[in-house]
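Trying the structure run again after the queue cleared.
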Amino acid sequence: MLHEEWLNKNAIKQVEVINVDAKKYKVDSMLTIGKVYDVVNETEEYYQIKDNSGKIGGYYKSYFKEL
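Done. Tokens:
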């Protein structure tokens, strides 16, 4: 499974969480405002990061700012 390979992958960049205002999902328990996360994969809409659960999750880019 691809997401398991990402756990051992080097980060391609870093992003900082600027908001957790999700309309549909519970994001505030998986991301911490002001914390910097390593991006392991990126698509047009999402960043895949290792979140607070220790697993890889995909989140909208609107929650982050690039460093």
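The beta strands are 13-17, 36-42, 46-50, 56-60, 64-66. Worth checking whether this holds up in the mutant runs.
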